[in-house]
Amino acid sequence: MTSHLPLPTIFLARHGETAWSLSGQHTGRTDLPLTARGVDNARRLGQRLAGLPFARVFTSPLQRARTTCEQAGYATAAVVDPNLLEWDYGDYEGKTRAEILGVNPDWNLFRDGCPGGESPAQITARADRFIQRLRSDPTDALVFSSGHFLRVLAARWIGLSCDLLSPHLQLDTASLSLLGYDRSLSQPVIRLWNDHQHAIA
After folding, report:
1. Whose CB among 15, 83, 84, 152 lies 3.0–4.6 Å from 60's, allowing a Cys bridge?
2. 10-195: what CATH class?
């Protein structure tokens, strides 16, 4: 049976560029600011979203997400949700993928998690809690967070484990993605992914 309830669209915004996103270092809880280009692209993201009414806006507590939200023009409407924090990389914080694979050649973040940090089960639980919050109110929402968390969120939105889908989703800084529903079946879908046409590379 097709639902007659409103079917919201969830807009996902990855934060703008930081020094570590540029260098490829894993940035979990290290609270880095945006680069100048990161700020500029956050403003361009705001221009892209201009005129779209959002009943709800959420942001990670980390300054790279909050600054992106602010520069995009949504700071006054935003609610900080700790579930939107980036993956806690533990012992791998600040390390590049090449450095990690040098000591752990078989490592896969979405399958293995991080020593001293979060497991896939823990970040999945956070994503599921946030999805519950989104689905408790069927209105459009705008979400500012970080790359790996948003990839887990997308997987969980459509009911997949993060190790099945998330490794195959590229997500650039200041990009825009959309989660929503198939209008005929009311089935959760990914409607748009990693759109960064508004950003300067």
Report:
1. 84
2. alpha beta
The pLDDT assigned to 183 comes to 81
Give 84's DSSP letter: G
The active-site residue out of 70, 86, 93, 118 is: 86
Tokens (6 digits) for 18? 């930081």
Torsions phi, psi for 189 (to 5 deg): -140, 160
Q: Is 86 a catalytic residue?
A: yes
Query: The whole model's pTM is what?
Result: 0.96
Which helix (H) or strand (E) is 70 found in, with range? helix 63-72
Please indicate whether residue 196 is annotated as part of the active site: no
* Local structure of 39: helix, strand or coil: helix
Question: What is the per-residue pLDDT across 142-182, written as a single tens digit (0 to 9) for each?
Answer: 999 999 999 999 999 999 999 999 999 999 999 999 999 99
184 φ, ψ to 5°? -90, -30
